[in-house]
Amino acid sequence: MAKYVAFLRAINVGGHTVKMDHLRGLFESLDFTNVETVIASGNVIFNSTSRSAPALEKKIESHLQEALGYEVITFVRSTNELKLAAQHRPFDDSEMDAAGNALYIGFLEGSPSEEAKRKLASLATEDDQFHFSGRELYWLRRKKFSDSKLSGPLLEKTLGMRTTLRNSTTVKRIASLCS
Is 40 part of any domain? Predict the structure, then answer.
C-alpha cells in the first residue's frame, strides 16, 4: 500500500467549512486507510492501493463534489515526491532564511510549458521570484504575502493550469509526518 498526500484547494474558504473529522471520514469512505488531516487548510495524508496519482485526484474530486456540493480541486503527491519538494532549495539560503522572506510551494496539475514559464517569469519583481521543478512552483516572496499583487488565481491564469499554494514550512511539516 502506498502513502500519499492530497492538497485540497479552497476546502475551507468562501463560506465553506469542513470539519477535519468529517473530511477524514470522507477519505475513509473511499477505502483509504491511515487517514490523517494536517492543519485545517486541506492537507490529507492517506494510504491507498492505487498507484496512480491522477486517478486518485479524479476519485477524490468526484467524491468531494458529490458529498460537499462544490468543487474541491485536488493535487496528490506520493510521499517521495513530497519529500523532494520539501527538500528542494531553489534560492540561495541567505534569501530563503532572511527575515521577512517566505517560500511558497505551488502544487501544479502538470509540468508547465516553456511558454507558461516565460509568462510567469515576466511577472517576477524585486519582491517576487519564481522557480520550477517538475510539477512544483517555488515562489520566494520578500515581503508580506498579502501585499503582493500576485495571487493564486493570477498564477493559474498565467500558467494555464490549476494550482494550490502552501507555505514551505507547512510542506516540510507534512513531509516529516510522512517519514
Answer: yes
Residue 24 banded pLDDT, cuts 50, 70, 90:
very high
DSSP 3-state of 78: strand
Query: 75 and 91 in one domain?
Result: no
* Residue in 99, 168, 95 with CA at minimum distance from that of residue 126: 95
Q: Is residue 161 part of a domain?
A: yes
- Among residues 61, 79, 97, the one where a domain terminates is 79
Q: Determine the Cα–Cα distance for residues 20 and 39; give it in Å rounded to an integer.
A: 9
Are the C-beta atoms of residues 56 and 6 closer than 8 Å to each other? yes
Band the pLDDT of 63: cuts 50, 70, 90: very high
